[in-house]
Write a structure and sequence with these properties.
- The chain is mostly helical and 182 residues long.
- Strand 1 and strand 2 form a beta hairpin.
- Helix 1 runs antiparallel to helix 2, helix 1 runs antiparallel to helix 4 and helix 3 packs parallel to helix 5.
């Protein structure tokens, strides 16, 4: 099977459901950003510090594929049965954040990315997740996007922030705090 089809050479691609759209469309940008996020989560999963979290991070990657497929489907024409997000997916993120927060010092300042390469990777993933969320919200203004997609991306970015703090805690590195210049 060849990977290349040459059908996209004119700048068009097909959504799930067959609709041809510009590769520069908002829908393509949204699910492309989710794909980028999934790669960052994979890189984060591969860090030694995250060995105990690899199954969870893999599950988050699976859910991101679910989000991507929801965004890649033409809401008017797709009849394909796609995987769904569930409220329990959001709850899992909340529960994991609550568990990590129990061990973290109270947040008293804005945190700058840095302190350790793995911590910085979590911050990069968080930023890409926020962009994916913004794009999904923008897309929702013109086309159907399930509320749970936006909710999941919002909670996932929060999770990635807490994970960055938790990783710094586990690594014994000081969090880099922002000190406003006055």
């Amino acid at each position: 099977m060849k990977i290349y089809t040459r059908t996209g050479d004119q700048g068009l691609t097909s959504l799930i459901g067959g609709t041809r759209v510009s590769k520069g469309s908002l829908r393509i940008e949204a699910y492309g950003t989710v794909d980028e996020l999934n790669s960052h989560v994979g890189l984060l999963r591969d860090q030694d510090i995250n060995a105990p979290r690899r199954p969870l991070l893999k599950e988050l990657q699976d859910r991101l594929f679910t989000v991507g497929s929801a965004l890649a489907a033409d809401p008017e024409k797709s009849r394909m049965k796609l995987p769904d997000l569930h409220d329990a997916d959001v709850k899992l993120l909340e529960d994991e954040m609550d568990r990590m927060n129990e061990e973290l010092p109270e947040l008293r300042a804005f945190i700058l990315p840095g302190g350790h390469p793995a911590v910085s990777m979590a911050h990069v993933a968080r930023c890409v997740c926020r962009r994916a969320e913004r794009l999904a919200i923008h897309l929702r203004e013109e086309s159907f996007v399930a509320d749970l997609v936006v909710m999941y991306l919002n909670r996932l970015s929060d999770y990635l922030f807490v994970l960055s703090r938790y990783m710094a805690h586990e690594l014994g590195v000081e969090e880099v705090t922002w000190k406003a210049r006055v």
